[in-house]
Structures are given as structure tokens and as C-alpha cells.
Amino acid sequence: MTNPNNISLNISHALEFIDGHALNIPTLKILSEDGDILDGATAPDLDKETALRIYSTMRFIRLLDERMQAAQRQGRISFYMQCLGEEAAITASAAALKQEDMIMAQYREQAALHYRGFSLEQFMNQLFSNEKDLGKGRQMPVHYGSNELHYLTISSPLGTQIPQATGYAYGQKLKHIDAQSGELSSEIDNVTICYFGEGAASEGDFHAGLNMAAVHKAPVLFFARNNGYAISTPADEQFKGDGIASRGVGYGIKTIRVDGADTLAVYAATQKAREIAVTTGEPVLIESIAYRLGAHSTSDDPSGYRTKDEEAEFKSNCPVARFKAWLLKQGWLNEEEDEAQKDKIREEILAALKVAEKIQKPALEELVSDVYDTPIPALQKQYEELKEHIKQHPDAYPITAGRIK
Amino acid sequence: MAKMNMLHAINSALDITMAEHPQACIFGEDVGYFGGVFRATSGLQEKYGKHRVFNTPLTEQGILGFANGLAAFGAPALAEIQFADYIFPAFDQIVNESAKFRYRSGNEFNVGNLTIRTPYGGGIAGGLYHSQSPEAYFAHTPGLKLVVPRNPYQAKGLLRACIKDDNPVIFFEPKRLYRASTGEVPEGDYTIEIGKAEVVKEGKDVTVLAWGAQMEIIEQAAAKAEEAGISCEIIDLRSILPWDAETIAKSVTKTGRLVISHEAPITNGFGAEIAATIQKECFLHLESPIERVCGLDTPYPLALEKEYVPDALKVFAAIKKSVEF
Ligand SMILES: Cc1ncc(C[n+]2csc(CCOP(=O)(O)OP(=O)(O)O)c2C)c(N)n1
Q1: Which of A59, A142, A227, A316 would staple A292 via disulfide (CB 3.0–4.6 Å)?
Q2: What strands, in cross-sheet order, belong to the sheet with B206-210?
Q3: Measured between beta carbons, which residues in chain B are less than 8 angstroms from residue A200?
Q4: Residue in chain A nearest B127 by alpha carbon
Q5: Are residues A249 and A302 in the same domain?
Q6: Are the beta carbons of A86 and A362 closer than 8 angstroms?
């Protein structure tokens, strides 16, 4: 029985309340910790080339994270965030998309960006906020973005990308509207994926974004990275009920939960979710369950809020090692080559770091460009005054003084 | 007296409040066991329990909505917004709700028990989203009070006054100064009156005015000015809403000149309000136009922060300009 409120009225005479965990949403797992396909599971259609590209992305990001974490400790960059523990979730989901699909990330998804082709040099230029940074040195390290790679530039306020993803995806769908009939085509070519943490899922923007996507049918893939912590706040102080997945269900969105350390499960789920989105034009929610192995950021010290034992327990479940074990068993990877590759990448990272570090900072005019399409008169005047001031005191502003025209 | 940095001083003010009122609650992102990302609430959960010092889910609009409700009930609500940059998701709850509770209900209800603490300001290489000074947005809202301390002693006394005040107050904490220095702070309770500016140093040629972290900058600029033979009267506004026009006008009547400095962008910054009021109050005493040394009309940058900020050199240049006009 349905009513105009769009609710199924399943009349009962028993005074019963539904428990928050009543849904008991299952978790898709395909790969065992040792790299075997589990009984009853079906491996996704993943070719060797894609599999190796996923693996090399995960390995690259591990090495980059490791090196840049150290660079921050040495005071060479001001801040860094690792994706340690979530490499599989981020890379495999990105790999299941088309290159032109839009990515709206939270901040910990550098692996998705690298998978798209963001180069080592581009990473470094952003991290050192030099004049080659696409973001013109305005944001803190790790706030990457690239129009060419369909990766929206990161914004620090949490959750803001979630309703934006809904709007963007709606636009992608409208591209296929028939001007004459006003009808939508049954297939659309691109979707938007929106990554966010289980912490960000508490923001008002999350609820607004999901609700709008469901009601207005936007082909957006909400990818909740449930990694157990939002800075120091454990998941059980963040939400009640059956994870973020139950919220998807609540909003009337097709939902799946996956083992986020299982590359094959994430790949399979995202591939299927994409298919649903392009054929129905509707949103899908994927909740990835993983563990944030590292600190929240270089400004954080997790020893203040979780035990070494807890960390050790999760460390043994390494997403990269699990996928590697599968690749070895497939005969697609060999141990020696892999080791040699690692050393080579480490050297490349170090060399790129040294180069980027020496590239000069953006020119003074980048302070006032892009605030508007062209600086408004008041800003133009402020800029002229600032130039004059710097010219009079060049020693106080060594980064820009010598370059002012 | 004890030596405290600003975080200790704030912690001490919160501690006194928690001991004083059995229903006082401290809440916000990561404030519980962890003591907040800056550790301002360290040790308080151990002391007062999880029911009164707790982590909230990550939702600023939720934190402020909850705080409004708790304060309306009558419990002191001590809400923390992790960075002032993230106060905007709570803007509606603060500007439309906290600020108007008393007025719209004919004083049937009020949220006078609400105090919002939030770290603001730049100078920490934080870029766009960890450096903003959003005081002016709130200064446009009748019903709120806004307070900014400049050192540990001020922080404790002013925060206690905010908590005791029977209006919703936003207490902006200059995060750059949290650990920057220590000062003598009484261990016991004391308050500093809200709405009163402080003449930090007397002088005769020019009045130089700021608040919060910018006080350090104008003091450096004034020191340079003194070397150049210019005598500066330095004033800490301390409270932005309500603000002490009288003390400023008295000073400007004496010196004939005013230089205002704040980190937030110049256009419609709170300096504009001060300049407008003081030119009316002191029109016949002014020897030169009121100068404002502020952030540019751009978001707060990262790589070119040094160029962007209203540093001591820029303030000094404005002092000279004012005196030489
Ligand atoms: C609106 C807003 N509030 C607070 C913050 C500060 N902050 C940055 S990251 C973070 C935790 C986010 O946790 P989660 O969404 O679970 O993602 P994770 O870091 O675990 O990947 C917080 C509180 C912010 N960036 N934006």
C-alpha cells in the first residue's frame, strides 16, 4: 500500500520500534587477507593493465606520503595528510570510473588524482606552493585540483562538496536532455563521485546533498570513507545506527557497504554503482570500511587518543599488501621488479622535491588575481599601494620585491 | 599569580566555570578526551565527566543549535568551533537564532548562557581556511557580543566575563598567540569588563588601535614610531560588540589622529565602523584622515602571506603618513 507521502504503509497492530541497527547492512568482501578470492565471491572484471595501474598508484602514493610526511617533519613543507590505510578504497574506486567522470574529493584522496594522471611534479608544485602550482600558492598543502583531470580543487570546509556533487551530477544528466521533447536519454555518459569521511557525514551539507540527489535523481556516487576516526573522534561518538550506509537507505538511495581494504570489492562495487547511475540517472552510496592507519594530518598525534595495540591490529590488514598478494598469485607481478621499482620511485620523488622546493613563489599579482574575474577598483588600488610599499621596503619582502614591475 | 600561556588561561577560566555550575557543558569537535585540537579543554573531561565535556559529531550547525537549546534551558553552554573559518555552517543558528532569541520572544526565552569560543586569525601558514577573522560578519548582528583578548591575562578575565554575561557572546581566540608567550595570570577567579577598551600605553601624537593578535603588531609599529620621535597612544579595543567609542574618542580628541589596524579585509571590516563613528565624534579635533591598515580585499593567501598581512612596517608607514599629513 502506498500513499501520497511516498511511504509504504505496512500497517501493524504491534507496538514495535525499529532498532537503529535493524538494517544490518552486509559488507562486500571478495579478497582474503592472503590474496585469494573468497568462497562464494566473484572477482570483478579487472584486466591486467588496470590492475597493475591500480597497484602502481597505491604504491606510488605510499611512497609519496611517506616522503612528504618526512619532509613536513624536516620543516620543508608546512602540512601534509596521508591516505595510509585507505589506498585501496580511493584508488580502486577511481579506477572504476571513466576519465571524464567528475571527482569531488574531501582531501585524503591523492591516489585518485594520481590515477587520473596528476604528475609527481604537479604534486610537488602544490605542496611547495610555488609559481607552478595550479592553485597559485593560495591553499595549504594537499589542496590539489585540476580542471583538465576533472578533479575539483579541494576546499577545507568539510562537507561542502557533497551538495555541489549533486548539482554537478545533475548538470551531467541534463546534458542529455532532448531539447524538443524535454525527455532524458536512457544513458548518460558521465557521473560525479563524491568522497567524504564519516565525520563529514555529520555536516548539514551531507544531509542536504543526499536528499537533493535522491529527490532530483542526480547521477552521483557518494563514497563515504568510514575510517573510524575524525581527528580524535572515534566513529561511535560520530554517529549511531548502522554506519553511513543506513543513511543512504534512509534517503532512498541505493546503497552498498564494502571492505575498504579490499581492492577487488571496492572496484566491483564502484563499477556496478556507476552502471546504475548512468542507466537510471540516480545516486548510489558506497560506504567503505577501512582504518585510518596514520595520523589525521601532520598537526595531529594519534597516540593521545588511541592505543598502539589498536593500531597494530589494523596494520596487519594492509590494503596494498592484500592486493599485491593477489597480483603475485595471478602471475601479473614479480617481487624483484616490484622492489626495484620502489627504489626508482623513491629517487624520483626526492629529485622532484628538490626541484620544486627551489622554484620561486607566485608573483605578487597572484595575490589579487582570481578574487573576481578582474580585480575590482578598490582591490586594484590596494594592489598599487602595496606595490609602492614593497618597493620602498624591498628587504622586508624578499619573495616578491625583486620581481615587481 | 601563575605563569600561563593563553591556552592555560582559557582552560583555567573554563575550569572555574565548570566547578561553579553543575550543568555547565563544554562541547565541540575533538574537545572531549583529546582536549581540543589546540588542547584548550585538556583535562576537563577527566575532571567533570563525559556528560559535561564531550565531543560532538562534526556539525557546526548542530553544535550551535544544540548550544542554543541548552542555553535556553538555562545551562551554561560553552561551545567550541574548531576554527573560526568553520563558524559559517553555524551562521544561521548564531545570527538568526542566538542573536534574536530574547528579542523575538519578548524575553520569554533567552540564550544568555551561551558562549562560543573559536580560534581565529592568521600568521600560522594556514592559508584561506585556517586564517580568517570573521568578526565583522557578526558585528552586523544586534543581539550578540564579540570579544577578543590579546594575552593570557586578558583571555582569562574576558572569557569569565563572557560566560557570566547574560547575552550570547562569541569569544575569538587569537590562535597565533595560544602558545606564543606566557604571562602572569591569577589562579583564582576575576573578570574584565566587556565593552571597555584599554589604553595600553599613553601617547600624544597619534592613537593606534587594534584588537587580539594585531595588538602585537601595532606595538611593534609604535616602537618604531617612538624611535622616529612620534608618540603613540596604543589602545586595545578588546570588545567589538559593544565597542567603546568613548575611550577612543577621548584619545583621538587628545592626539588628533587615528590609525586602526585589523587582519580582516578592509572593506566593511570593523575598522570602517570605528572610522565613521570617530570622524563624527571628533570631527573638529582631527588633524589628518583616519588611516586603516588591514587585510586586502582578497581571501587570506598562503604563499604571499607576508605581503598580504597588515604588518608592523605597514602600520608604521600609516602612522607616519598620519602624522605628516
Ligand atoms: C566545517 C569544518 N569543520 C571542521 C573542520 C576541521 N577538520 C578538518 S578534518 C576534520 C576531521 C574529518 O574527519 P572525516 O570526515 O571522518 O575524514 P578523515 O579525516 O577521517 O578522512 C576536522 C574536524 C573542517 N575542515 N571543516
Answers
A1: A227
A2: B198-201, B232-236, B206-210, B258-265, B291-295
A3: 58
A4: A139
A5: yes
A6: no
d(CA B60, CA B79): 10
Identify the domain containing residue B44 by its residue range.
1-183
Q: What share of chain B is helix, strand, coil (3-state, %, to 5)?
A: 40, 20, 40
Domain-located, residue A338: yes
Selecting from B297, B304, B317 the residue whose C-beta is nearest the C-beta of A364 gives B304
Tell me, yes or no, if A114 is annotated catalytic: no
Cell numbers for B302: 598562503
The verdict on residue B93 lying in a domain is yes
Tell me the C-alpha distance between B288 and B270, whole Å: 20
> B84 and B168: one domain?
yes
Q: What is the pLDDT of residues B205-242, one digit of tens each?
A: 999 999 999 999 999 999 999 999 999 999 999 999 99
What grid cell was written down for A83?
Answer: 591516505
pLDDT tens-digit map of A56-77: 999 999 999 999 999 999 999 9
Residue A143, C-alpha cell as written in the block: 589542496
A50 touches A271 (CB < 8 A):
no
Name the residue in chain A with its Cα closest to that of B300. Answer: A138
ipTM of predicted complex? 0.93
Instruction: Give, rounded to a whole angstrom, the gap between the first and last alpha carbons of chain B.
Output: 45
DSSP string, A10-45: ----S-----TTTT---EE--B-TTS-BPTT-----
Per-residue confidence (pLDDT) for residue B116, from 0 to 100: 98
Angle, vertex CA A41, rays to CA A266 and CA A229, nearest 5? 35
Separation of alpha carbons A5 and A20, rounded Å: 22
Instruction: Give the DSSP H/E element, type plus range, for residue A254.
Output: strand A254-259
- Look up the pTM and report it: 0.96
As beta bridge partners, residue B260 has B209, B292
Domain count, chain A: 2
Contact B56, A231 (CB under 8 A): no
Indicate which atom in ligand 1 lies nearest the CA of residue B129: 25
Distance CA A356, CA B71 (A): 52
User: How does pLDDT run across A239-258, given as a tens digit for each residue?
Assistant: 999 999 999 999 999 999 99
Same domain, B11 and B135: yes
**Side-chain-facing half-sphere of A70: CA atoms under 13 Å:** 9
Is residue A345 within a helix (H) or strand (E), and if so which, with residue range? helix A335-358
Contacts of residue A386 in chain B, CB cutoff 8 Å? Answer: 296, 307
- Does residue B229 sit within a domain? yes
Interface test with A, best of B31, B266, B298 (most A CBs within 10 A): B298
DSSP sequence for B142-193: TT-EEE--SSHHHHHHHHHHHHHSSS-EEEEEEGGGTTT--EEE-SS-----
A109 lies in which domain range? 25-355
